[in-house]
Write a structure and sequence with these properties.
Number of strands: 5
Strand order of the largest sheet: 1-2-3-4-5
Radius of gyration: 25 Å
CATH architecture of the largest domain: 3-Layer(aba) Sandwich
Length: 192
């Protein structure tokens, strides 16, 4: 326990609000910061130290959530395996140096969402259950990410095809998607 008069002198000297300092100390404890170190216990700029530890705490929480999602995705890989081969056979396609890649594991959806800055990582349950289909659009030679595409579960339409940050696809990639659509997407009533 810190002597209250020492803490009050510190707060007055640094012009830090008591609530900010209390939050800072609490977050330090949550992050297992060594509070026996004077520089941690009484940082020169407590407001900046508060914001820094808060950012670290947010990062830690985000990583914990990410790990939980990865474990949930891995647990559903068995469901995905039941229909992955059929998706691969139906949607295998390449043209003009671009190819479609079907995820092998559901954790790839999370990786794709992170890399492409989109929400496809939240589609794990829907893809595992077969209620939607997600494929990746890649450069054939380099496997560079060019886009992410969602296809209706019945194969009758492309729900969406987006580049990184949910931007429109570049013209060449959009032209590829149109070729893919003409060959692989079948409206209701047309056998495929």
């Amino acid at each position: 326990m810190l002597p209250p008069d020492r803490v009050m002198r510190y707060l007055k000297k640094t012009k830090c609000r008591k609530e900010i300092y209390i939050d800072y100390i609490s977050m330090c404890r949550d992050m297992d910061v060594d509070l026996t170190s004077k520089s941690n216990l009484f940082p020169r700029n407590p407001d900046r130290a508060h914001d820094a530890i808060l950012e670290h705490l947010h990062t830690k929480m985000a990583l914990e959530i990410q790990e939980k999602k990865r474990k949930e995705a891995q647990a559903q890989d068995g469901d995905w395996e039941k229909h992955r081969a059929a998706v691969e056979r139906r949607y295998r396609f390449a043209a003009d140096g671009i190819t479609i890649r079907v995820p092998e594991k559901l954790t790839e959806l999370i990786d794709e969402g992170n890399a492409m800055h989109n929400c496809v990582g939240t589609y794990v349950k829907r893809v595992a259950s077969g209620s939607t289909i997600v494929v990746f659009i890649r450069a054939e030679a380099t496997n560079e990410r060019l886009g992410t595409m969602e296809i209706a579960a019945d194969g009758t339409r492309i729900v969406q095809a987006r580049a990184a940050f949910n931007a429109d696809l570049p013209q060449d990639v959009q032209a590829f998607v149109e070729k893919f659509k003409a060959e692989k997407i079948k409206p209701i009533g047309i056998a495929g």
